[in-house]
C-alpha cells in the first residue's frame, strides 16, 4: 500500500495504528472515513466505539469491556475486503484498564487491521502514543488559534508601532472575549511546560483585559493598553509613548 495524503495529512501506508489529533471531532472523524476509502476498507468492516454515556457508573469513559469486544471483532476475517478498521472516538476518555488492554493489540496488530484513535488533546498514555503515528489535523479552529497566538507573541515582543497595528487587528475580531480566553488557555499550557514567570505575567494581564472588556466598549484601547504593559520600554520609543 502507498501513502495516504489528504490536505496536510501524510501517512505511511505500512503504519497500522494512528492517532488523529485535532480540536474538531467532526473533522477528525471525516479524515478517518476518508482514510478508510483510500485503503479500500468497506463500511461493513469499520468498527466504531465511543465513551459510554448515560449508563450507571460510566463516568463518560470507554470501558475495558468495549475494548475487549473490539479486539474480538478485529480478530475475525474481514467480510468485504482485505482490511478492517477500528475507529476509537474520544480516545482521550479511555479508562486506564481499557488503555492498557488496547496496548496489547497496538503492540502486535494483525496484518488485516488498522486502528485510528481520535483525540482532541492527546491525553493518552505515552505507551499508546509511542506505538502510533500521531497525525495533527489542521482544522480551521486550530489554525485560527495558532495565528492568534503568533500575532500576540509578535506584538508583545516587537516595536510599538506594529504592536498597535496588531491591537487594531485583534480588537476588530467578532469575539474579543473568546480570543482572550484562547490566549489565556494557550499561555497556561506553555506555563505548565516551561514554568516561566513571563507567561504568568501575560496571563494576569489578559485576565485584567477581560475584566476591563466588561466595563468599556473600546476594544482597541483595551488591546493597546495590554501591549503597552507587556512591551519592554526602549529609549527610541519613549517619544512615541509620550504622544499616545
Short description:
51% of the residues lie in helices and 13% in strands. It is of the alpha/beta class and 244 residues long. Helix 6 runs antiparallel to helix 9 (219-230) and helix 7 (176-194) runs antiparallel to helix 8 (197-213).
> What Rg is obtained from the alpha carbons, in whole angstroms?
23 Å
Please estimate the helix content: 40-55%
- Range of strand content: 5-15%
Low-confidence stretches: 1-8, 233-244
Order of the strands making up the biggest sheet: 4-5-6-3-7
User: For the terminal residues, how far apart are their CA atoms?
Assistant: 63 Å
Shape: elongated
Order of helices and strands: EEEHEHEHEHEHHHHHH
Largest sheet, described in full? 5 strands, parallel
- Helices, by number, come to 10
By DSSP, the count of extended strands is 7
**What does the average pLDDT come to?**
84
Structural class label: alpha/beta
Amino acid at each position: 500500500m502507498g501513502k495516504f495524503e489528504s490536505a496536510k495529512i501524510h501517512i505511511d501506508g505500512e503504519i497500522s495504528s494512528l492517532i488523529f489529533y485535532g480540536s474538531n471531532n467532526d473533522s477528525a472523524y471525516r479524515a478517518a472515513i476518508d482514510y478508510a476509502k483510500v485503503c479500500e476498507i468497506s463500511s461493513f468492516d469499520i468498527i466504531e466505539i465511543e465513551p459510554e454515556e448515560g449508563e450507571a457508573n460510566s463516568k463518560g469513559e470507554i470501558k475495558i469491556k468495549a475494548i475487549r469486544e473490539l479486539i474480538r471483532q478485529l480478530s475475525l476475517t474481514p467480510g468485504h475486503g482485505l482490511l478492517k478498521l477500528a475507529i476509537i472516538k474520544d480516545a482521550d476518555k479511555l479508562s486506564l484498564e481499557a488503555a492498557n488492554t488496547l496496548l496489547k493489540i497496538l503492540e502486535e496488530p494483525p496484518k488485516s487491521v488498522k486502528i485510528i484513535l481520535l483525540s482532541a488533546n492527546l491525553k493518552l498514555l505515552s505507551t499508546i502514543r509511542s506505538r502510533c503515528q500521531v497525525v495533527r489535523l489542521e482544522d480551521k479552529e486550530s489554525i485560527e488559534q495558532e495565528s492568534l497566538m503568533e500575532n500576540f507573541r509578535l506584538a508583545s515582543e516587537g516595536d510599538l508601532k506594529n504592536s498597535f497595528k496588531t491591537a487594531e487587528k485583534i480588537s476588530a475580531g467578532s469575539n474579543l472575549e473568546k480570543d482572550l480566553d484562547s490566549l489565556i488557555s494557550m499561555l497556561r499550557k506553555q506555563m505548565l511546560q516551561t514554568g516561566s514567570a513571563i507567561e504568568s505575567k501575560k496571563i494576569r494581564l489578559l485576565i485584567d483585559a477581560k475584566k476591563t472588556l466588561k466595563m468599556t466598549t473600546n476594544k482597541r484601547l483595551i488591546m493597546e493598553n495590554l501591549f503597552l504593559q507587556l512591551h519592554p520600554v526602549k529609549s527610541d520609543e519613549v517619544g512615541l509613548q509620550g504622544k499616545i
